[in-house]
Amino acid sequence: MDSRRCGFRTATIAFFLVGLWIWIPFPSAKENLGLLGIAPEKVADYIYAVLEADRSIYTTQIVNRMQERGIVWAAEHWEQNNALPLPAQFLQHSGRLVAESGRGIRYRLIGLFPIYQRNAPATEFERKALIQLQRQPDRAVAGIVSSGKKQYFQAIYSDRAVSSACITCHNSHPLSPKQDFKLNDVMGGIAITIPLE
Amino acid sequence: MTENSTSSPPGTRWGLKTKVILSMLLVGLVPLVIGLGMAFWQGSQEIHEVSGESFEALATEAARKLDLLLAEEIAHTARIANDPMLIRELEHRRDGRGDAKKPNTTPSDLERRWMARDWTAIKSIMENPFSALLHEYFTGVHSAPGQLLPRVVRSSTKMLFLTDLQGTLVATMTEHPAFRHNEARWWREAFHKAVGRLYIEDVRFDDQVNAYVFTISLPVMDSLRYEVVGVLHRVIDAKDFFSPSTQVTRFGKTGHVMLIDSNGIVVSCPILPTGVPLSDPALIPLVTPQHPGWVQASSDGHGGQDTSVIGFAPLPETGRAANGSLGNGSWHTFVWQSSDELFAPIQHLFTGVSVFGAVAVVLLASLGYIAAGRIVTPVRQLQQAAQAIGRGELRTPIQINTGDELEDLADEFNRMNGQLKAAFAGLTDQVKLKTQEVQVLQQSTDQILDAVPTPILLIDAHDVVRYINQAARESFKVQEPMTGASLFTILPFDPAVQKRLQTEFHTNGNPSLIIDTIAHEAAPRDPLAPSVGHESAGPRAELHIASRIYQYQWFRLPARPGEEDSIGLVLRDTTDESRLQDQLVQAEKIGSLSVLTAGIGHELNNPLFGIIGLGEVIQDEQDLEHIKSCARDIVAHGRRMATIIRDFTGVTNREAFDKQVSAYLEQILDQALSTAQTTVEMKDIVIHKTYACNTPVLVFPDQLRQALVNLVTNAVQAMHGTGTLTLTTHVSDHIVTMTIADTGPGISKQHLTKIFDPFFTTKGQGEGSGLGLTVARRIIRKFGGDLRIESDEGRGTACIVTLPTNSPMSPEGGPWTADAADSEPQPSHSS
Asked: Is B472 a residue whose pLDDT tops 60?
């Protein structure tokens, strides 16, 4: 069971990675295209679309169906409890895998009311972007940010409570600072960071 | 009732009591033992259960507490890692180094000096602003109010230092750390491909701080949280860190919480030192599952081998945060209490149960003793009463007032005693009456027996005389006290007679067989004695005692049950009777002789006087013819006399030595008829003959002819000259029956019984000797036949002769001829 799930997970991630890789310009293409390139906003948009699609598929077609049929549930401590990762965790873990791949692109979920502080906005830009997304969820906030001498393009997309699993967890978790989320509320954002080299 | 049962042995008396006590003990003890055992077992189980569950709860609680403790510590450390100043410095160092992917492996000057423990180098790092910042964080300057690091936590932190993204030391609180750490596992795990993650290192012994430590490594992310720019490393003394949390949780004398890792190494324990493994490796898999629980193990992990109840729980958050550094598992709390202490309640329960059991046994035994006494005493009373009733000695009624069945039983005993008394009284009267009757009977029997003139003795199976009557006492001169004497001391016989009597005595007093043999040998028969009537009866047994003759007879007396039969001996004094009979016989003989003499005289006198007269005539007679005539008469008279004499003697000399010869009976009968015709007048007699041809018989023909002549003569004489003589022979089954029947007046019944007696005759004096029939029967019997007379008074008499036939005719014998008879003198007269 575990191995099957593990395989499934791997397959999902692989699928995602392949999707991601397609949108990354091939080195040969880059050479051919010369200085044309693709605007980072576009890249972020593409990535966001893939992320959203993957997570939607995972949420609606896997977690919801499994739970409806009573086969397996999604839980925070899914590794210990033989459960499915929560959709948010799905995104977080895939983001970690992407980061570990060393290709530079990073994305993560951030929120103004995170259960764990590590998911709080790391910079003022992120914080303001989240605030702005509360007001205008449909419009992503993008900008150039720097760490030391390094510059990165960062785009932050609003993230809604797409499933009841999201609000159930956030509204009941003891560490959650806000417990009145409703379905389709903007709970935070997906921050996509692309190094500018 | 016998003496034995009257004084019943103590064992029997105590038996019932012991049984009752034992029964009560058993009845009480068995459920008691079962109940107490069940209670003990149940108690033990419950103590196990309760202890196990509370230990599990305690372990879970302790695990949560330690988890939180560790999480808090990590959070504190994370706060340092989030310090913007540190991040800026580290970003700066990153940017300054250029390509982070090519770490500078050549040792710098500072590194060499740090390694050489150069004071200035140490000072330059330990006193730089970042080290100071670490100090400030550690001492709580930057902490929010209420979030100061606890003192114990502070004291337990043995090292706290910061490295940049190349693993070189940036800041440290102590001088212990090495300068370069990029090869250390914790560093690589925390750096984690620049993604960074929390890493907790399992307990190990650290030489530099000389203690068992665990470490927390946190990546320092850049300001965008994009990548790792450094690693914050903290070395914590495990014992110092966890002890305050685990030590406080103590219960009882030995109950405590300890923390172990998934390899069974003790992280913190109030008893065991940190770093040692559990004493029993088999225990480790039992107590390190990924869920809380409790187990009943065969050892306690602290060196004891007693059965222990152990509660355990993992630290889940720590396990998750450790990122695989703690093996596959986590750290686990382990709650344990010494068996002795844990099971002390069970021991107390057991002691209590034992004491209670002992008390119950004593109580049951006492109660049993009392109850048995209450039951047994009336029972014994009843037993004694029953014995008294048995002896007929119960005078006073039984007094038992138990108010239960025993009292009823006593009442029944009393009633039974009354009924028995009444019944016994009636029985005694009857016995008295019967005894008197028996005595009267005995007296009368004795008197009867004494009155009998015949001696009677009663003898038992051992020849001992049991009774002797008056007649016997007088006859045998026996003194009064004679019982117990042997028969032969009273009647002294010679040994032969004694032996004979004993034999008779032991053949059930039946003397007949013995007597028969003896009697036949003795006493030749008197020919004149009447023997026909006595031959079948046989002689009577006789005894000669002191010149007296006794006939005796045995008779059997039935014995009383259990004794042997006794034999009675009846003696009859036949001395006088025998003498009288002898005299009578003698007189009869004399009488017979005189009759014989008179008959012979008479028979012979007639011819004799004729001869005398003829002789006298001859003396004076001259005429020769007359003389010759007289002489012929004399000869005739002589012959007649010879015939008479022959009749008397009955046999001829010739036949005495001749053998019997086979002859035809019919021929002999015809010859006898011819002979008879010479002596008696038969002119008017009609003779009928019905013969069954020639029947051979084995006889002396002369004798048989003589006998038949007598019979024919008798028949003819009976008819007085006129009548019918019927002669018949008939053969059947080897027997020839010859009948000579006349039509005379017959024989009266009174004479019929005597006709075979010698000298009995109905004829006149000189006509018959009274011997004819006697002689005839003797002759016929000699040949194996018989003669009997049947007479119908007034109608005639029949002589019936039976003889055995001689079927195969003997060749040399031949038919009997008349020549033989011719030589004999012709009988002139037949009786």
From this structure: yes
Question: What is the Cα–Cα distance from B710 to B403, expressed in whole angstroms?
Answer: 114
Percent of chain B with pLDDT strictly greater than 90: 9
pLDDT digits (tens, 9 = 90+) for A94-129: 999 999 998 889 999 999 999 988 899 999 999 999
Secondary structure of residue B747 in the 3-state scheme: coil
Facing B316 at nearest CB: one of A77, A96, A99: A77
Contact criterion met (CB < 8 Å) for A152 and B226: yes
Q: If DSSP codes are grouped into helix, strand and coil, which group holds residue B141? A: coil
Q: Cβ separation of A148 and B194 shorter than 8 Å?
A: no
Helix, strand, coil fractions of chain B, as percent rounded to 5: 50, 20, 30
**B95 vs A79, A106, A149: nearest CB:** A149
- Per residue in B659-682, pLDDT (tens digit) is 788 888 898 888 888 888 877 778
Q: Which two tokens stand for residue A129?
A: 């972007």
The pLDDT value recorded for residue B474 is 82
Domains of chain B: 1-342 (no CATH), 452-528+535-573 (3.30.450.20), 657-822 (3.30.565.10)
- Name the β-bridge partners of B251: B255
Residues of B with CB under 8 A from a CB of A: 78, 88, 91-92, 94-95, 192-195, 221-227, 290, 316, 319-320
| pTM given for the model | 0.53
For chain A, the structural domain boundaries read 2-196
Cα→Cα distances B517→A93, B513, B521, B531, Å: 147, 7, 7, 18
- By CA distance, what is B198's nearest residue in A? A118
Tell me which of B224, B227, B332 to substitute to probe the interface with A (most A C-beta atoms closer than 10 Å). Answer: B224
**A-to-B residue pairs, Cβ atoms closer than 8 angstroms:** 54
| A123 reaches B (C-beta below 8 A) | yes
CB burial of residue B508 (10 Å; 0-12, 13-18, 19+): exposed
Along chain A (197 residues), what's the average pLDDT of each consecutive run of 10 residues?
A: 56 59 48 68 94 92 91 87 90 92 91 90 93 93 91 94 86 92 92 91
